[in-house]
Amino acid sequence: MEILIRPTAADVATQAARILAHYAREGATLGLATGSTPVATYQELIRMHREEGLSFAQCRAFLLDEYIGLPREHEQSYYRTIRREFTEHIDIEDANVHSPDGLLPDSDAAGRSYDEAIQQSGGVDIQLLGVGTNGHVGFNEPGSSLASPTRLKTLHPQTVKDNARFFDSADDVPRHVLTQGLGTISRARHLLLLATGEGKAPAVHALAEGPVSAHCPASILQLHPHATVIVDEAAARDLQESEYYRYADANKPSWQRH
Ligand code: F6R
């Protein structure tokens, strides 16, 4: 795992956008996350599109997850959120932005067909990830199988609490989601996880330095051949090897610099 510690959340976004821009230039298949963390990265990519001509016209995108039962046009559906925050502002074809269908009555079939669609597209080249305060990625809550496919999951009460800020009240947060599984996420060729703020510090320590375990689903990054974790100083607070990560980052061979 490559762990990059940057001074601020804005620096995390700049670095992440630089990495994603490299893939966009190749016409890659992008795996997109929602939530607060990637918003600044999306804003930087939108700026690069407007001011530097960065094009996404050859790209495809797959979202990590979707609430079950929320109409697509609901302001908080991830279908709407990713368009509002990112893809409406760049030149990717809307038909090439895919998300799990949280309205299909048979969620097992919906999960299977989403995994098939990802595979048929040639797979995800770079998967952007946030991490929950409880260590979830996508909505693979603690206890998720490390090999899981896209499927229905019940949100952890902590996640409902964390996401209540996007809704009028915690009661309005849907309790179920269709999420890419940890097996699905692991098939992406490059995993790029971002975390900012001290609320994420325990999860960052657990995912990078704790055991690989269903208790911390984000720890699957330790098993991945190409995983990059970018955190700000606040989220890096609990890392025990932070001095070594900084040293390795500063002494990277030139061909490994982003
Ligand atoms: C969102 C997702 C979640 C979030 C995580 C962190 O598509 O899959 O795993 O990445 O809950 O959310 P924020 O960034 O809001 O702290």
From TrEMBL:
The answer, when asked if Transmembrane is one of the entry's keywords, is no
| Cross-referenced Pfam families | Glucosamine_iso (PF01182)
Pathway field of the UniProt record reads:
Amino-sugar metabolism; N-acetylneuraminate degradation; D-fructose 6-phosphate from N-acetylneuraminate: step 5/5
What terms describe the molecular function in GO for this protein? glucosamine-6-phosphate deaminase activity; identical protein binding
- Gene Ontology terms, cellular component aspect? cytoplasm
Q: Does the keyword Cell membrane apply?
A: no
For this protein, the Enzyme Commission number is 3.5.99.6
Query: Which domain of life does the UniProt lineage start with?
Result: Bacteria
Describe how its activity is regulated: Allosterically activated by N-acetylglucosamine 6-phosphate (GlcNAc6P).
Q: Where is this site: Part of the allosteric site?
A: 144, 151, 153-154
Q: Which residues form the active site?
A: 65 (proton acceptor), 134 (for ring-opening step), 136 (proton acceptor), 141 (for ring-opening step)
Transmembrane stretches in the record are: none
Name the Gene3D superfamilies for this protein.
Answer: 3.40.50.1360
Q: Which reaction does it catalyse?
A: alpha-D-glucosamine 6-phosphate + H2O = beta-D-fructose 6-phosphate + NH4(+)
Q: Which UniProt keywords apply?
A: Allosteric enzyme, Carbohydrate metabolism, Hydrolase
Any Gene Ontology biological process = N-acetylglucosamine catabolic process
Q: Domain named Glucosamine/galactosamine-6-phosphate isomerase: which ranges?
A: 4-222
User: Function of this protein?
Assistant: Catalyzes the reversible isomerization-deamination of glucosamine 6-phosphate (GlcN6P) to form fructose 6-phosphate (Fru6P) and ammonium ion.
Check the record and name the HAMAP family matching this protein. Answer: GlcN6P_deamin (MF_01241)
Instruction: Give the record's family classification.
Output: Belongs to the glucosamine/galactosamine-6-phosphate isomerase family. NagB subfamily.
What is this protein identified as? Glucosamine-6-phosphate deaminase
